[in-house]
Amino acid sequence: MAQPDSANGSDGTLRQALGQALQPRMLLRSVFASAIIWLLMASAMPSYSRLIFHGPLEAYFAAGLSMVLISQIVVIPITSLLASDHATLVVPRSPTVVIQGMVASSVVAAAPADMPQEALFAAVFLVIVLSAVLTGGFLMLLGYLRAGGLIRYLPYPIVGGFMAGLGWLIVNAGFGILLDLRLNVQSLPVLLEGAVLARWLPAVAFALSMFALRARVKSTLIMPACIIAFFVLFHAWVLLGPGDVASLAADGWLLPEAWGALRWQLPDFAAVAQLDASMVAASAGGILTLIVVCTLNLFFNASAQELIVERELDFNREFRVNGLANMASSLCGGGILAYHAPISSTLVANMRVYGRMVGLILALMFLLTLFFGSAIFSLIPRFIPVGLIIYFGLQFMKEWLIDSWSSLPRQDYIVIVVIALATGLFGLLTGIAVGVVVAISFFVLEYSRMDVIKQEFSGSFHRSNLDRSFAQNQLLQKEGEGIQILRLQGYIFFGTAYRFYEHVVSRINADDSGRLRFIILDFKSVRGLDVSTIVDFQKLKKLTDGRGIELLISDASPPLQPLLAGGGITEERLGKPSLFDDLDHALEWCESILLHEASLLDAQRVTVEQQLAQHAFLRPRDASALTTFLERMETAVGDTVFNQGDESDSLYFIESGRVDVLLRDEAGHVLRLRSMTAGAVIGEVGFYLGKARSAGIVVTEAGVLQRLSHDALRQMEETAPQTASAIHVLIASMLSDRLSTTNRLVQELMD
């Protein structure tokens, strides 16, 4: 069983793990870690309440604090006990609270001017709860559908632009809370007025100070230290200055006063009778945005936690637990959305404490805060929570607009900037829509630049798997330039198809000698074909027909075959097929045409004497000695010449007929490597190397083989050295020809 403070995420049974976490030393460390996290979260709580309850709803600031506290009290223990990793801490976060604040503002803006404040608060509360229930339900649905990891496929620039734009909206929300205005060109003169400047300058100074310190000091204590320092400096200024706390509070420098105990009371739902449908409809776009923002942030923060704790999380379980916790929070009167907090997980990992115990202690601390700790909030200067909001927004903007400049391709960075601008100027949903359009446009542009031709080579280098006679191979090496092979790839659409068409046209036009006879388009690696591209293939078909060139298609998948046939690309004329099952059969057909025209295809019988006389220059009187050393074997279809693994004690000359080379794997599956016909030699490699047969040979067309054994070759070398030398020359020529062809093919593929 793993120790609670170990780096292992597996914590055995909950009872055993909690028992170890309750040991005095471990419990003390857990309390200390919980206190630090409480300070961080408690410092941000007023800003969360102010994001939702300001302007006409400012009187309900304390109710907003209660909603934040209840959300924490409910969410933290549920997620701490049920999450897939013990270091998981789920708390309300600024990005989603900003969107919930926008949802609240949309309800307020759509409300009638004479609507009572109590009814307005009830309407906002209901919409906030509704937004949390819908978002939590969506997260749970993703988890139960095992789709928690699908967000990994979202293009990175879209997410980056979205987060950068969200950062600007967060900064703008901070100024809106503080000054009730939006940051734009028209508001700049107002911002520089003396009284207004005094309001926002401390918040910006606080945000920039924390921003600069956190960039230089990598410690989780920097944020609480900054908050405490600015809190002390403010109250020291109050004591030393001419004013007092009461006058500053009346002047709006401090947060609204909260009553002694933040006991949550539900609003008077009878007042909701005045709720207009347009008020709920006005929040629909914000709720949809909230779902997107929460889903994205949950995924990215959970991914960040994986890097911090160096353990993998079960994303489907994380989505289910987060959804359940947020829905439970809403039904209990909270509704402030929460998700993973990597900073808190970092503290748990660094202090090597048991995160589930930390979560339980933290929930208890917030419960005590709800009943006994509210008085401290009225002493907090407004600029501190607003400064925190501005800091969070600046952090997003720095990460995605500044840091990404050096790490992303310029194209991706442009997408981020465009989406960020659209989001900041027109809103999150518009930013997402613009991002999708821009990303698709860049994708189409980038994909159109990709060469649809995967490989291109001629029949001189790339042969079919039919091993022919030496004379036939020599002819194909010479005339094989007339066979042009293009292996296509990917999804072919109008952009890539036209570039492919232009390439083939230039290749045809460059053939001044008229040697080009066949063009084979291999579709084995083609995943799809846009209907509009048929026009380009039709133009290519018309061009090749006019030049007397055969356009052949190989290995087209069943969904593509009707498209090609319907466009007239694969029509069969006078027994000449234009669609082949694979490239090998297409090549064999083309080779047969070339050999037939050279009167070499009908050589049904090629004797060893003929080969030696033609290629090893053996004199007739020396060739006559062959019959003494060769064993003539008549074969029938299905005969096995030798099996894989047999001893290589002889080689065979195919005088007539045809055989297949078969390879059997460990599972017993048989693969046909190639076929061999009259004039080819079988088993020469193992014969000369003295190794076991690497494949088996089975007769597929009856004929005659001439067998030469090791003993017969030794006798030949003693009694007929000229004949033996010719045998060696013939085998060396065949092997050299194969090696030369292979080398040229490899070079062609590398180029």
- Residues in helices, as a percent range: 55-70%
**Gyration radius from CA atoms, angstroms:** 40 Å
Q: Low-confidence spans: pLDDT under 50, at least 5 residues?
A: 1-11
Mean pLDDT, rounded to whole units? Answer: 82
**Count of DSSP E strands?**
14
Number of helices: 29
Principal-axis shape equals elongated
Structural class: alpha/beta
- Distance between the terminal alpha carbons, to the nearest Å? 57 Å
Which range does the strand content fall in?
A: 5-15%
Report on the architecture of this protein:
Helix content is 58%, strand content 12%. The protein contains 29 helices and 14 strands. The longest helix is centred in the last third of the chain and has 30 residues, at 721-750. The protein has 751 residues and is an alpha/beta fold. Strands 4, 9, 10, 11, 12, 13 and 14 form a 7-stranded mixed beta sheet that branches. It has a 5-stranded mixed beta sheet with strand order 3-5-6-7-8, with helices on both faces. A two-stranded antiparallel ribbon has the order 1-2.
